[in-house]
Amino acid sequence: MRLITALTTALLISTAANATTLQLYTSQSPEIAQQTVDAFQAQYPDIKVEWMRNGTSQLMNILQAEIEAGAIKPDLLLVADTINLGALKKDDRLLSYPEAPVGNFDKATYDKDMTFFGTKVITTAIAYNTKNAEAVTSWNQLLDEKNTGQIAVPSPLYSGAALNHLHSVKNVDTIGWDFYKGLAKLDIHPEGGNGPALKAVANGMAKYGIIADADVIRAKASGSPIDLIFPTEGVSFITEPVAIMKNTKNADAAKKFVDFVLSKQGQELVIKQGNLSIDKSLPSPEGFPRLEDIKLLPMDSDEAVASDKQTRETFTEIFGG
């Protein structure tokens, strides 16, 4: 017994000594991030993943400070949108991975130069409290005086999904900057991410919210008085891409993480977590409409990267931040 115990202890020490540790920066919710990491580590027990969670824009601020200090910590990024990753790609901060298993995925879900890869489809639509608000069909129907102070809006200065949404709608004739100016006139103050906005709508503090689809659908399924509307003008969408930092010293292990989240097992986890998979061969989660029934608003990520500074400045001017 003592010999077996000693051998087991020696094996554990040896395994720990040989384990690779990856640093992951993610904007996934803590629960979802832990599920993703646990599932990966179950398949690759010799690779440990330490992760830090924050809003995408805040993570980019942290990363930029690390870049300036010459002390970049993450090996991997798993964040909300392609705009921030496009900026990092432009600065030659991302590792190209031409062998990534993109299979038959739509080319719109990954970078043509293979530096970042979408892992799911998340739309941003209109949530409403079913007890104190009426369903609408258009974004502009929200701009009614009776909704003054009653619309929860995540900030694009914090949330990657909100930033992607802003870039997607700012040039749409029927929405555009006029929609955001209309929100400002209603005393709406965008702040934080999707979580606080969802909570505000679910508890009745706000009648409406501009929120990511899965958050609303999960809340509805759990009994919250909340539902989701896909406006006729269309909705923005993000793919929550994964990318490997070019400076990583653990490229092989990082590529295994990318392989996992793009694999059938990884995509089945996406569905289990309540999101639409990028794998068209897999079904939609319960409660989700079919993608073909939703009008998706395209976004030019290259244009978004080029105009991002001005876009943020315009947003700040409108809301006086």
UniProtKB/TrEMBL annotation:
Q: Which Gene3D superfamilies does the record match to this protein?
A: Periplasmic binding protein-like II
Write the protein's name: Iron(III) transport system substrate-binding protein
Q: Which GO terms describe its cellular component?
A: outer membrane-bounded periplasmic space
**What is the organism of origin for this protein?**
Paenochrobactrum gallinarii
Q: Which GO terms describe its molecular function?
A: thiamine binding; thiamine pyrophosphate binding
> Which CDD domains did the record assign?
PBP2_Fbp_like_2 (cd13547)
Asked if the record carries the keyword Zinc, the reply is no
Which UniProt keywords are present, listed alphabetically?
Periplasm, Signal
Keyword DNA-binding in the entry? The reply is no
* Region forming the signal peptide: 1-19
- Report TM segments: none
Set out the biological process GO terms recorded for this chain's protein. Answer: thiamine transport
InterPro entries, from UniProt?
A: Ferric-bd, SBP
